[in-house]
Amino acid sequence: MSTPYRASVPTPGASPQWRSLDDLARLEGGGDEFPADASEWPDALSRRRFLQLMAGSLALAGTGACTRQPREEIVPYVRQPEALQPGQPLYFATAMELGGEAFGLLVRSDSGRPTKIEGNPAHPATLGRSSVHMQAALLTLYDPGRSQGLMKSGSPATWEDLLGTLTEQRARWQERAGAGLRLLTRRIASPTLREQIARLLTKYPQAQWHEHDAAFPAPPLPAGLRLERAEVIVSLDADFFGSGALHPRAAFDFAKRRRADHGRLYVVESTPSLTGAMADHRRALRPGELADFARGLARAVREPGAEADPWIPAIARDLTEHRGRSLVVAGEFQSPEVQASARELNEALGNVGQTIDNLPPAPGPRAAALPELARAMHSGEVEALLIFGANPAYDSPADLDFNAALEKVPFTLHHGIYFDETAGRCAWHVPESHFLESWSDARALDGTVSIVQPLIEPLYPSKSAHELFAALLGELPADGYEIVRSAWQQRPGGGGFESAWRKTLHDGIAPQTGTVSAPPAQGATTQIPPTEPAAFQASLELIIRPDPHLLDGRLAENAWLQELPKPFTKLTWGNAAHLSPRTAERLGLAHGDVAELRYRGRTVRAPLWILPGHADECVTIHLGHGRNCAGSVGSGCGFNAFALQTSEAPWGGRGLEIHKTRERHVFATTQEHQRMEGREPVRVETLGKPTTPPAEAAPAREETLYPNIDYGRPSWGMVIDLNTCIGCSACTIACQAENNIPVVGREQVLRGREMHWIRVDAYFAGSVEAPQLLHQPVPCMHCENAPCEAVCPVAATVHDHEGLNVMVYNRCIGTRYCSNNCPYKVRRFNFLSYNDTHAPQLALMRNPEVSVRMRGVMEKCTYCIQRISAARIEAEKEARPIRDGEVVPACAQACPAEAITFGDIHDPESRVAALRQSPRHYALLAELNTRPHTTYLARVRNPNPEIA
Amino acid sequence: MALTAQRCEQVTDRLSGLVLREPLRRGWLAGFALAFALLMLLNVAIPWLLIRGVGIWGVNIPVAWGFAIVNFVWWIGIGHAGTFISAILLLLHQQWRTSINRFTEAMTLFAVACAGLFPLLHLGRPWVFYWLLPYPDTMALWPQWRSPLVWDVFAVTTYLTVSLIFWFIGLVPDLATMRDRAERPWMRVVYGIGALGWRNSARHWKRYEMAYLLLAGLATPLVLSVHSVVSFDFAVAIVPGWHSTIFPPYFIAGAIFSGFAMVLTLVIPVRAVYGLRDLITERHLDHAAKVMLATGLLVALGYASEQWMTWYADEPYDAFMSHNRMFGPYWPVWWTVMACNIGAAQALWWRRVRTSPALLFAVALLIQIGMWTERYMIVITSLHRDFLPSSWGMFHATVWDWATFAGSLGLFFTLLFVFIRLLPMIAIAEMRKQTTEGRE
After folding, report:
1. Cβ contacts of A673 on chain B, cutoff 8 Å
2. Of A13, A266, A479, B316, which is the most buried if we count CB atoms within 10 A?
3. Does the beta carbon of A715 lie under 8 angstroms from any beta carbon of chain B?
């Protein structure tokens, strides 16, 4: 029966489109595709008949809207999937890529739904820690704003339609050897995808591959930092704790060093960064001065002599005293000259191989850059442009005029997770599968390769890049799993493939793929930076950087990241032009003024944020905002900084003018006041100096009217080490994912109603010119004498036997008295219905162990009581106490610096109990006699006596 | 203060006639229409609140209590004057109270009704308000007795109950008068039900006097207790600006202060419109103004001791709070409070001001504004900057905050206008006793 069909199946691509074998048989056999009268309009249409038809259509249109949901039966598994117990989460190793690097993940799956992302402890880039972007990737998966279907010129189309078109296109490419065919991708971490690209470039030799990543410029020489070995670190605007590929590994290693012995970190930067906030000495210099500083430092280490800047000889001495144990890092946005200075310093100090490793670049063909593509497009050389993941219609420098260029390309295809600006301008749009829905692989910075395995079937008819490439190449297999698997099968490796594949899937990393070190890079060309036109010499300098959370705008639709307060400014839902108080004063500008930024003939209107610690005479703006087609969440927040970006100086330069307008802007910030007012919520000590006793010690334990309750064991507590906390907010967003915390939107943030259970407070201490930047994560303190409990009229917030201050949502009537009486203001109230209960996708995302709160109910940090319960149940099953470290709240698990320690404070063996004995240990507002269970370790500074 | 010139019959006739014979006046209609329009605003604001949630108001974190609590305390304070006049002045044999006690008791009742709305509306989930009550529920859950909000529930409901009974008992002889004088049969029936079969017998009078006196005795401690308990909402909390033992006496003085201001605000127009200048004389105004002056000075003493305590205690948080009130972002609030409650009240030292209805009316209005602003100061400027500078914030009232407040004014005045039309606004039986005839 099937033989004639099979015999008639031609090779794909050579025949007209068919859907099924029947279809094909009909096509081949000349079956009538259009039966008579199927779609023909009757000629003699009477008025009566017309009205009848219209009425019928209307009625049917109405019924179409109320589709009856299929009745679903709850049926037990006929065959129980391996290791699956209903109600018990499973964890799968996978990886995500960001900026062309892999980050190994462990993802929790509840009943087949990924519900929480953590770092994979075995993966070198994460070591079990995570970052805001990893945590927020979960929301992107379930985002109702994702592209949900294939589109052709703005109307829905099918995959088969596309395959047909690609068949035609392939024939053309074949004919011309790929001339006019261009690929545009972001930085790619997947070796399999690189192989596919290589195959495409081999098949069509004239085709060209371009790479564009507006948030992660390709480093000239990849290098691995070993911060744990470096005793003296100098950062030349290198924000390794920020959103770059080094975070969270950098934070982890740095914290390890700080805990062992403090070391010293110098940061010279223009814009306050998370790295700058950790510095023992921080210096704000504008980019031009920074380059001089780097040159001066290199000179001073080479041949010590007199320097105009007193910092340079002091740092140089410190560096030379720590040969092989020091490290100089230049930021990825710095000029090649600064990079060269840093390289020279590291080589002169013998740090290469000690604290910094030169890493081999990813194998495979090299990609060209975006400007070359834009030039080719403008000149009409490009016939087909295939865009993978990138969004150049939004995130390309303004001088390329990419949108106009795009119109000159006859065939355009966009593959992306959102129907974004570029998708809207391309002929074809193919929805991209999220990494939790598709098979792939990814290579980390050091060469470790992981398999990206899906945890869920694609929610929408989307395709992974591999699948689309297979279609482009006309290759089989066409299925993502088979593509990745067969690519891995072809790679050399000892032993049986199946067991190796399974082990790699399980562990999350392929054995022995990590490369230790590459030979010292030679021929690192020191380019002379182009001299700037004299006209610009006296003007302000513009600094363009990716947004710390939204990056280049690719995450603008992610509401968690939009609402995550940005470092220092605590700004949400928008961006600002940052400048120093002194510059603002000189120019007569005030905080919140809307100004016109004019830069080399282009103009953008931006609200001004006066940021202490910013370098004078320069302005920092962040990319990633002001999008038009980011969906309902991301569109229209902030201004588009790409409008000022130019391809020759993408990260800014001289020539900026600011013109004040009459408009004012209100920032949606979660922290309006950033002075400590002499209250010292963040304590700072100086290394080697005796700790100053706190101004007012906690009252004696007996000082209470209520009977003292002695909690037994366990009595949960948390210690947050402010000396290692980098203030990255990974805890905030991890908590949001774990505890089903809603986002509230800009209007509600403006009203002061954000819902984060753990917030990261930012303070400025010292002078306005050179302030010290401080961070402090603040979750619920779980006070023993909790002021909130005494005032709740319905006992909705009470203490449990394990020392937790628990919130009983069902009992809460919403008087909000508890929040008023909370001196830490960590309670959050559902003023309106914040939880979106309508989007079915978001219902899938929620953690089933945590209640979704309704409006009118107070909520707050629970120390992840669901995790405590899970651990308790396990311990009780084994008839043993809960072990130290067995309960890890989401914040502590995410923290890249391991700054949050959680455990039983009454267990003398526990890590928290040990930390509570530290001389740096203190409780926030201890004088109020609240006896908090969340306490802090003071920040320590290790100043260089020559500078201080 | 005997009304020598008037006879019992005359007094009875005039006062009952205000209800029974007086035609619908245009002034009354206009006033009622305005009040009713505001009430309808409340009728929109409340459903919208129930549909959307308290987020339609300006409350936030840190200022989790806003207009609702300000209005609650303000209205409860206004309610105090009535009970003070009815009960305490009765026990102190202050005969001048008779002219205004019925009116002020009604005012108390309506003010407490308005006040009672707010704590319910301000709940996140108002439909479960009854969890505040100790009722035998299946989960054996009780209110949390340490919370002043539970005390509030008892204080306010007790106060409402006692005020209602006190007012009603006082009305019984007058309702009988109305029953006897009403011409339409249905009115006779309605008033007759309220009159509880009052026949003006000596035995009735004996029992009535005893009951009234006992209720006065019962109401007297309530005057002190209710606002003390309300003030505990603040005093028990640890918020700087709230956590202070001065609150109970300071609140009581403030309550009577604002209550008398409200009495004067209402009585001065009413006596002019209804031609009751001979029953509510300038002497009454003078007395009321003196009470206001005295309580106003007590309130000023409260402010002064609060300042002194912040200085003496040398508590950084309190010192900051005090400074922030005067010079922080809400500085106009503090200065308004001082100008109205201390400044304007000093005009009452002059007899000319005390006996001039127009001037007194102006002062009383200023004091009411001042007292509302004082509650705003206590609730909002204390909360908006407490311990950790990181969580400092601002409160901005929304249109719904104002709508609810205006709506509560509408409710109050609607009830008052209805009261004026349906019941004798001056206690007839008591006024009869004040005439020379009655005294014989």
Report:
1. 385, 389-390, 392
2. A266
3. no
- Rounded CA separation A139/A441 (Å): 21
Name chain A contacts of B150, Cβ cutoff 8 Å. Answer: 793
Closest CA to A553 of A486, A453, A476, A626: A626
A residues 720-779 near B, CB within 8 Å? Answer: 748, 751-753, 759, 761-763, 776, 778
Q: Give the range among A33-42, A571-580, A826-835, B324-333 with minimum mean pLDDT.
A: A33-42
Contact status, residue A886 vs residue A904, Cβ threshold 8 Å:
no
SS3 state at B229: helix
Distance between CA A268 and CA A334 in Å, rounded?
Answer: 12
Contact across the interface for A681 and B393, Cβ inside 8 Å: no
B59 contacts in A (CB within 8 Å)? Answer: 816, 831
Distance of CA A97 to the CA centre of its chain: 10
Chain B residue closest in CA terms to A827: B61
- The residue-averaged pLDDT of B378-406 equals 93
| pLDDT score at A70 | 56
Task: Provide the shortest C-alpha distance from residue A670 to chain B (in Å).
Answer: 8
The pLDDT of residue A841: 87
Alpha-carbon span A105 to A135, nearest angstrom: 10
Residue B132 in contact with residue B153, Cβ under 8 Å? yes
Name the 3-class secondary structure at A426.
Answer: coil
Residue ranges of alpha helices (H) inside B196-281 are 202-235, 247-273
Q: Would the pTM of this model clear 0.90, i.e. be above it?
A: no
Give the single-character DSSP code of B340: I
Dihedral angle at the C-alpha atoms of B411, B414, B415, B420, nearest 10 degrees? 160
- Alpha carbon of residue A74 to chain centroid: 38
A753/chain B closest Cα distance in angstroms = 6
Q: pLDDT tens digits for B54-82?
A: 999 999 999 999 999 999 999 999 988 77
* String of DSSP letters for A707-762: PP----S--EEEEEETTT-----HHHHHHHHHTTPPP--HHHHHTT----SSEEEE
pLDDT for position A366? 84
B54 in contact with A at a CB cutoff of 8 Å?
A: yes
Specify whether the CB–CB gap between B357 and A641 falls below 8 A. Answer: no
Q: Find tokens 């974190």 and name the residue.
A: B61
Instruction: Check B391 against A762: CB less than 8 A apart.
Output: no
Q: How far is CA A665 from the centre of its chain?
A: 27
Q: Cβ of A302 under 8 Å from any chain B Cβ?
A: no
Q: Is the minimum CB–CB distance between B136 and chain A shorter than 8 Å?
A: no
Residues composing chain B: 440
Interchain proximity B124–A823, CB inside 8 Å: no
Amino acid at A509: I
Query: Residue A492 above 80 pLDDT?
Result: no
Q: Which of A678, A795, A831 sits opposite B144 (nearest CB)?
A: A795
Give the nearest chain B residue to A929 (CA atoms).
B238
The answer to whether A406 and A393 are in contact (CB under 8 A) is yes
- CB contact A671 to B (< 8 Å): yes
Considering only residues A693 and B70, tell me which one the structure prediction assigns the higher pLDDT: B70
CA distance B383 to B70: 13
Taking CB atoms and an 8 Å limit, are A790 and B236 in contact across chains?
Answer: yes
pLDDT attached to residue A634 = 83
Rounded CA separation B6/B438 (Å):
10
Distances (CA, A) of A631 to A418, A636, A713, A798: 8, 9, 50, 42
Among A122, A204, A101, residue whose Cα is nearest residue A441: A101
Residue A525: band (very low, low, confident or very high) from pLDDT cuts 50, 70, 90: very low
Please name the helix (run of DSSP H) or strand (run of DSSP E) that holds residue B108, with its range, or none.
Answer: helix B98-121
